[in-house]
Amino acid sequence: MTRIPLRPLAAILDARKKGNDPDAIEKRNTTVRHEAIQNELRSVGEGRLVVLGIMFFCAFAVIGARMGLLAGSEPTEIRAQSTGLDILAQRADIVDRRGRVLATNIETHSLYAQPQEMIEPVRAAKELVKIFPDLNEERLVKDFTGKRKFVWVKKKISPEQLQLVHDIGSPGLLFGPREARLYPNGKLAAHVMGGTSFGREGVHAAEVIGMAGVEKQFDEYLRDPSNGARPLQLSLDLTVQTAAERVMYGGMRLMGAKGAASILMDVHTGEVISVVSLPDFDPNDRPLPPVEGDPDDSPLFNRALQGVYELGSTFKVFTIAQAYELGLVSPSTMIDTRGPLVWGKYRIRDFHNYGKELDVETVLTKSSNIGTARIAQMIGAKRQREFLESLGMLEPTAVEMPEAGGGQPLIPKNWSEISTMTISYGHGLSATPMHLAAAFATIANGGRKITPTLIKQSGPNYGAQVVSPQVAFEMNGLLRKVVTDGTASFGDVAGYAVGGKTGTADKPKARGGYYDDKVIATFASIFPADNPRYVLIVTLDEPEVYSMGENRRSAGWTAVPVAAEFINRIAPLLGLRPEVEQGELAGITLTSN
User: Fold this and answer.
1) Coil, helix or strand for 568?
2) Between the CA of residue 79 and those of 75, 90, 149, 177, 180, what are the distances in Å?
3) Crossing angle between the packed helical segments 433-444 and 469-485, to the nearest 10 degrees
4) Rounded distance between C-alpha atoms, residue 432 and residue 306, angstroms
5) 223-244 as b/e, with b when 16 or more CB fall inside 10 Å?
6) Tens of pLDDT along 232-267?
7) Angstrom distance (rounded) from CA 480 to CA 500
8) Quick one: pLDDT at residue 81?
9) The dihedral of CA 431, 432, 436, 441: what is its sign?
10) What is the number of H-type helices and E-type strands within the chain?
11) Whole-model pTM?
C-alpha cells in the first residue's frame, strides 16, 4: 500500500503562500488515513462474520435434519445394532411335488413398548393382559414403571390383535413390521416341515431360522438370496398326504394304539410320497420339547425316522431273499420246523405248530420263526451282516431331515449264531420304518438299492444291485402269497394286487426287558405286486383290538387292515387303475371262428 505523507512540503508552501494554517493539512491527512484503515478493517470483519454465519447455518441445518430423522423413526434394540449387519428376513417357499404351497411367508407385526412415552403404564398393562392372556400383568407393570427404555411385549401378533392394541391409545405402545413363517395346511406333514423360530431380531425385521425337519435341513438354501426365491420342491403329494393322515389317525383310534407311523415310497426313485407320524403338532405353534418322560410321548417325536424298533417278521423277507441269492434254498426246499429250536439256553418257538417241516415258500407265508432261523444258520453271521448292510439297515438313513441321524439302528455287539437266528425273524436288531421302506423298495424294484429322499426326482435313482432281478421277482410273488394265503389276508384290496409281510414284535421297556402285553405291529407292503411301484409301511405302537371274542395285538389283525384301507384310498390318487376281473355275461355264449 502506498503511504501518503501527513505534511507534504508542496501543500505546506502553498498554504503559507495563501495565508492558510499549515497544521490543518496534517489533521486532514490524518483523518483520511484513519478512515481508510477503518474501512479496511470493517471489510475484513464483515467477511469473517459471513464465513462464521455460513458455518453456523450448516451446523444447525445438519443437527436439525438429524433431529427430524430421529423424531420420525422408531427405536431399535442395541443388541441388534451392535452387529452392524442387516437382518435377512426373506425365506423361500416350500412346495409339494405339484407346486402346491406347504410353507410360505406372511407380513405381520411385533409389539414393543417405550415406557418413558407412556401416560398410563398401569392401565396399558391391564389392557394388554386382556388381549394376550399369556402375559404376566405384574411383570408388565414392573417393566413399564421401571427404568427400562425398551420392552418387547410380543414378537408376533395378528392383524386383529394389532387393532385391539391400537385401540388402547397408549403412545408408548409401538408396532414393528416383520416377516413370519406360515404353514397354511396346519398339522399336515408337520414332522416334515419341522417349524421355524426367530434368530436375530430387530424392531423392523426378524431373522427366521429353521428349528427341525426340512426347514432346518435346508435352512441355508431357503435363506439364500442368490436362489431368487425359488421354492424348495419336495417329493410329498399334498393330496395323498392328507388322505394318509386321515386313514392313519382313524386306524390309530380304531386299533387303540398309542401312536402310529406310515411311509409311502416310490420303489424306483426313492421319493417319499407321504410320511405320517402320530400324534403330531401344528408347526405354526410348535410346542416345547419335553423335559421328562419317554421321547415318544411327545408329539415332536418322529416315529417314522426316530422310532427305532424291532420290526419282527418283516425281516424274514430279507433272510429268504438272501438264501435264494446264495443258492442255498429254492421255494420247494423243505425246512425242519419241529420245535422248540434249542440253542444253548435259548428256545425259539412258532406261534402255531406247523408240523415237522415246511417248504421255504410256506415258511414265509405262515411266518415260521423256526424255519427262518434254520435258513439263517445256513447263511451264517458274516454273510447276513454284509447283506443287511448292503440294504442300508445298519446305518442311519440318508433322508434329508436332521431327525434321520437319531434313527441309528441298534445292532448286537457280538453278532453270534444266536443273533443271526433271531435277527432273521426281526428280533435282536432294531431299525426305523424308513429303513424298512427303503429295503422293501430295493427288493420290489428288481433288486437295486434305493436311497429314500424327500426331494422330487426327475427319474429313477437306482444304486447297486443287491439281489438279482430273478430273486426279486420271486420274492414279489411270495409277498403276494402272504396276502392271499398267509398272515396278511386282511390286506387284500379289490382291484389292486397287494403283497406284503406282517411283523409283530414285543415292545421293549426303557430299562431293559419286554412288555408282556404291548407290541409294535408292522405291515410292509408293495403294490401292485405283479409290477411294484410303491412300498407302504404301516406301524402301530401298542395296538389292541377286540375281535372274535378276544383281544388281538398281532399285525395281521391291526396294521394290515389299516394298510388295506390306506391303499384303497390312495391308489386312485396315485393314478393306479384297479384291475377288474371280467366275469361271464349272463345269457351270452362266447364263440370263436
Assistant:
1) helix
2) 12, 21, 14, 18, 21
3) 110
4) 7
5) bbeeeeeebbbbbbbbebbbbb
6) 999 999 999 999 999 999 999 999 999 999 999 999
7) 6
8) 41
9) negative
10) 18, 22
11) 0.80
